[in-house]
Amino acid sequence: MPIGSPSPLVRPAGSGRAGAAAVTHQGRPRDARRWRAERLAPYVLVAPAVLIIVVLRLWPLVLGVNFSFTGDGELNGTPVGLSNYLELAADPLFRISLRNVGLLVLLLPVAVAIPGLLATFIYLRVPGHRVYRSVYFFPAVLSPVIVGAIFNLMLGYDGPLNALLGTVGVGPVDWLGDPGLAMFTVVGVHIWATFGMALVVFLAGFSTLDASLLDAARVDGASLRQTIWHVIIPSLTRTIQFVFVTTMIGMLTSMFGLLFVMTSGGPEGSTYLPEFYIWHQQGQMNQPALASAASTVLFVVMLVVGLLQITLLRRAGRQD
Predict the structure, then answer these.
(1) In 3-state terms, what secondary structure has residue 241?
(2) What percentage of the chain has pLDDT greater than the value 70?
(3) What residue stretches are annotated with the ABC transmembrane type-1 domain (predicted)?
(4) What does residue 13 show for φ and ψ, rounded to 5 degrees?
(5) Which of 60, 115, 254, 304 is a Cys-bridge partner for 195, taking CB atoms 3.0 to 4.6 Å apart?
């Protein structure tokens, strides 16, 4: 080893703990900045969507609720307290619309069960399942106005459906003119026209289903009903919750086109829904404050029904 060269056993000055401390001290600010950037990144990415929701959804909702406590006509802009809500409570048309909301809630399990069963049959690959998938989804691409016009022709008093019933000895049925039957008819048409989207959601949920569970059920000799009740439904709890909520929202907010074309709220106001009532007060009666009050009531009803559905479905899933 040449004279004057440092020994390998001799550590240079600044090495050891002091050097490690210097490296650590220099690295900490960089790590802290990186940690803060990683923490802030999700909020930065979500901020535009939150801003859009606040500006286009929440802020108009707050304005609408505030407007519902003002008057119409000569009292435009004047605070009137709960007068609009008391007027709604006394209006028989609005009470009919709320009664029809209860009817929709009762028919909701049927609206969810139909696409669920059809999606089950398609997932189990019944013969022709590829064709059925396209046929079932096709009504979802049609406009509600077109669907309403088609069924007006089919369900007319002298229409083809009554003519077909006449061949088996059943008298003509006034599908759209009977106050006790018209709402069921419109809801049935709505279910036919919209269940294609729920079918797609169910098929997406089936993609997460563990196929080994179905194989085990088949080996154990489970029937189709037992397989659906004990295997498929517990495995698709979240999908079913989503379909329940979205289907209910669609029934309460997307039936205006059908109602307008098929019944225009009749006969005798029997097919009124809050959505149609809001349009009638705003567009026909020129009472925007009263329409805002009805919109607020509709929002509260949707919120309560949705929360109740989620709570009941979660409890049912825990019990299973």
Answers:
(1) helix
(2) 89
(3) 98-309
(4) -65, 140
(5) 115
Paired with 71 in beta bridges are 76
Helix axes 59-67, 288-319, angle to 10 degrees: 120
Decide if 271 contacts 256 (C-beta within 8 A). no
Which residue type is seen at 316? Answer: A
Residue 26 near residue 20, CB atoms below 8 Å: no
Q: Where are the chain's structural domains? A: 92-319
pLDDT of residue 4 exceeding 60, the answer is: no
Question: For the segment 150-206, what is each residue's pLDDT rounded down to a tens digit?
Answer: 999 999 888 999 999 999 988 899 999 999 999 999 999 999 999 999 999 999 998
Residues in the chain: 320
Tokens 């705003």 belong to residue: 282
* Identity at 276, one-letter amino acid code: F
Q: Which of 119, 122, 120 has its CA nearest to residue 198?
A: 119
Q: What's at 266, amino acid-wise?
A: G
Closest by CA position to 281, among listed 306, 304, 301, 298? 298
Q: Which helix (H) or strand (E) holds 219?
A: helix 211-219
Name the token pair of 234. 């517990």
- The topology (CATH level 3) of 92-319 is MetI-like fold (1.10.3720)
Query: Across-strand partners of 76?
Result: 71
Residue 175, class by beta-carbon neighbours within 10 Å (0-12 exposed, 13-18 middle, 19+ buried)?
A: buried
5 pLDDT more than 80: no
